Amino acid sequence: MAAARGTERDPDPEGLAAARPLLTDLYQATMALAYWRAGRARDDAEFELFFRRCPFGGAFALAAGLRDCVRFLRAFRLRDADVEFLASVLPPDTEPAFFAHLRALDCSGVTVRALPEGSLAFPGVPLLQVSGPLLVVQLLETPLLCLVSYASLVATNAARLRLIAGPKKRLLEMGLRRAQGPDGGLTASTYSYLGGFDCSSNVLAGQLRGVPVAGTLAHSFVTSFSGTEVPPDPMLAPAASEGPQVDLASRVEVWLELVCAHLGLGVQEPHKGERAAFVAYALAFPRGFQGLLDSYSVWRSGLPNFLAVALALGELGYRAVGVRLDSGDLLQQAREVRGVLRTTAAQFQVPWLGSVPIAVSDNIDEEKLARLAQELVAVGGQPRMKLTEDAEKQTLPGSKAAFRLLGSDGSLLLDLLQLAEEPPPQAGQELRVWPKGAQEPQTVRPAHVEPLLKLWVRQGQLCEPLPSLAESRAFAQLSLSRLSPAHKRLESPELCQVALSEQLQALVDRLRAGGPL
Fold it and tell me: Which stretches of 357-447 are assigned E, i.e. beta strand?
């Protein structure tokens, strides 16, 4: 397996989100027109991005996508072609002055508070708070939801897979060919890495985002060989660069006879084309040779061909880096392959062969891996709340602050939402809070208090450099370490509490009752 680490570029000149100012829904544009006609385009407004339930039936999410949101905001400007297209889909009697207003829009009046990338996020706690002129933030709602939601889902899924695999297993993301286009592929590769994967096969993610890239051979490479090919240079020098070069293909044939005798196979059974592909790959990557075992038959072809090439390389001082299984019952096959590797290692007295890594692919989901080991909340300074018969879809009013309350051992007690004008909670002080959905308040005394929402953009200006992707990845692992085993369970996990301050709960109750603010 070949691997390399890229260097992240920031700002990202090829950032797909930053290049698309019309990344919005038409209904956002029509509401923008209505605000403008009502003389409310420059009203102060704030909206929040949050989720109502933890994804994948779990107890947590990882916040992600902030970097892409900042890129989008810093590059946001409607070009003439963008305005002309909007003119073509809006009513033909729309005033030219509205389009002149659109041409002058930018994000110089926009302020963003957000959870740092890699933070634990729980239902109802804002991932992102955006404030600024009403017309602008209305246009921003959809693109920011798009950029944050998918990134957070990918990072959360990756984190769950990492928790299942444990800290030592190597996880490679290689889903580009099945991704939702290049935008989705770049996002998936980037935020899989943030969530805990080790590397990606996506070279663009390495070039633009600094994701370590790694790759190996595919079935198409194996099946492209018939076994009649003659390598232009079949000679391979020893790893120590001492001694004469060796015809690798010839040594492989010698080892094949020994391997087949050991496995009880006829020497004609392993596929010649597959063996030729392995030899060609080994000549190109003697220090990174990995065998893909199931292009034909794992037991009659892939495994004996791999063993012959690996043992021939071993004579020259090289060690194969692994085998890969890509179909069938991966767990059972992996166990049986491990057994063959160990008996072959003992038979030919090459101990390293018995511990060669076994990689598995083929749509690995949580179950397989376990087996293998925005809503508008304030306008003009007045709280707004969506009232609906579905309690889950009711929003929380007002501009809010969020804090994480921790026990003396660093364990999570709860996340607290309160009105922005309230004094922040203090460590060691007793608080009365209302857990969401509870009928009675409870008392809590935190040993530590952490503010969650950090100011990143003020009036269109970045307040401080964003952490690198690698730093956010490390922070994500630190965040996950705070979860208890009960929170990490795949089935029926214990949910982390989110509570409201007494003032915020009182405001919610007044708005529900239709009373004064």
Answer: 358-360, 375-379, 382-383, 400-406, 412-419, 431-435, 442-444
Task: Look up residue 86 and give its two tokens.
Answer: 């909007």
Rounded-to-10 torsion of CA 31, 35, 36, 39: 170
Show the tokens assigned to 443: 């008392």
CB 214 within 8 A of CB 197: no
Which residues have C-beta within 8 Å of that of residue 440, sequence separation ≥ 6?
none
**How big, in percent rounded to 5, are the helix, strand and coil portions of the chain?**
40, 15, 40
Q: CA 477, CA 62: separation in Å to the nearest integer?
A: 10
Query: How far apart are alpha carbons 144 and 262 in whole angstroms?
Result: 60
Q: Name the strand (E) or helix (H) holding 470.
A: helix 469-480
Residues 6+ apart with CB under 8 A from 188: 154, 173, 175, 176, 179
Give phi and psi for 44, each to the nearest 5. -70, 135
Q: Which residues contact 27 (CB under 8 A, 6 or more apart)?
A: none
The dihedral built from the CA positions of residue 162, 164, 170 and 173, taken in this order, carries a sign that is negative
- In whole angstroms, give the CA distance from residue 40 to residue 304: 74
**Contact status, residue 101 vs residue 136, Cβ threshold 8 Å:** no
pLDDT of the chain, 517 residues: tens digit per residue:
445 555 665 444 445 555 577 777 888 889 999 999 999 999 999 988 988 888 888 999 999 999 999 999 988 999 999 999 999 999 999 999 999 999 999 999 999 999 999 999 999 899 999 999 999 999 999 899 989 999 999 999 999 999 988 888 899 998 888 888 878 899 999 999 999 999 999 998 999 899 999 888 888 999 999 988 877 888 999 988 777 899 999 999 999 999 999 999 999 999 999 999 999 999 999 999 999 999 999 999 999 999 999 999 999 999 999 999 988 888 889 999 999 999 999 999 999 999 999 988 877 777 777 776 644 455 666 666 554 544 555 566 678 899 999 999 888 899 999 999 999 999 999 999 988 878 889 999 999 999 999 999 999 999 999 999 999 999 999 999 988 899 988 788 998 899 999 898 888 888 777 655 5
Q: What is the DSSP letter of 434?
A: E
- Residue position matching structure tokens 């495994």: 303
Question: What is the C-alpha separation between 429 and 417, in angstroms, rounded?
Answer: 17
> 303-315 and 330-348 are packed helices; what angle lies between their axes, rounded to 10 degrees?
40
* Distance from C-alpha of 436 to C-alpha of 429, rounded to nearest angstrom: 21
Quick one: how far is CA 505 from the chain centroid? 34
**Residue 35, SS3?**
helix
C-alpha angle 46/379/27, rounded to 5°?
A: 80
